[in-house]
Amino acid sequence: MTHTGNMTAPPTGATSIPLARGFVTVVASTLVLLMLCMIFAPSAVSYGGLAGSLPFAAVIAIVGLGQMLVVQQGGFDLSLSGGVSLAVVLVTHLPSGNNAELLPAVLIAMGLAVVTGLANGFLVGFMRLNAIVATIGMNALLYGVVFAVSGGVPRTTTPLLAQIAGGKTFGIPHAVLFALAILVIVTFVMKKTAQGRRFEVIGASPLAAQAAGLRVRLYQAMAYVLAQLHYCVAGIMIAGITREPTAFQGDALLLPSVAVVVLAGTSLLGGRGFPISTVIAAFFLNQLSQFALSVGVPFSAQTIIQALALVFGIGVYSIQWRRQKTIKETSKMGDTDNAA
Fold this sequence. Notes:
By secondary structure, this protein is mostly helical. It is about 70% helix and about 0% strand. It has 13 helices and 2 strands. A two-stranded antiparallel sheet has the order 1-2. A hairpin with a 2-residue loop joins strand 1 and strand 2. Helix 2 packs parallel to helix 7 (about 175-190) and helix 11 (about 255-265) packs parallel to helix 13. The two termini are about 35 Å apart. The relative contact order is 0.20. Pfam families: BPD_transp_2 (PF02653). One of its GO terms (molecular function) is transmembrane transporter activity. This is ABC transporter permease.
């Protein structure tokens, strides 16, 4: 499992700022990848290439932030695919191309996302069911609703949604702006509010938090509600970016959502989360896929690439953690010998 709560050793000096190991790792990896793209696949970092890929990176970032909240509580949300797909079919099939019906469809999608999150939170947080079992069952239920609404047939998105989610402002895709806005909100709440700090404390040590009088089960349940709202927003973005989205758009996002959380350095055991690193990891993973396509790797191998990125994240942080632990133990032994 990953253990990334430790900070990189900062240089001595009054102006030194400790950085999370996950942030340093993902930023360095992204810079290396960009240099490789410039050398071997310039089209992947051209304006046209980035303009086409950044909206999908933004979608990965949004679902990654949602999954991060659940992972911080030591769980996994496998109902992500169904949640995203349900939002897609609701905002495309209910309006049927009518801009006036878009807002009611969005509100219905948001409402169902809250209901789904509450159901997941109740099963996991209060009934103490295994998170994987509970959410995979909920995912099957959500896909049942998806088929009931869409019949498995795609439908063209409304012009208004295409303009809102798929448009650009000053050359920046709107999906990217939405992702950045969500990042700011999540970062502020998690790092600057008492509720956010309690959320991280509960994820790190539920038993200690319960002994301190914190409402552990409520916070654990709310993680699933907030995660589903993220998935809903991602689904709405996809519906606007893609002219004719299918009923299975969420299937391709489950593995990337976990991969970016791990690459960002969030421990799979729960605890502290890293929203900024998660968004950077989303860009890295999306850019890695673009680089692979540019050098001739078939699209069918994208899942393998994402799985390798997940393994890379787990492996790198585990190795660094063990190395740091060994150094600390050696230092303690040396201090004991000197004292003797």
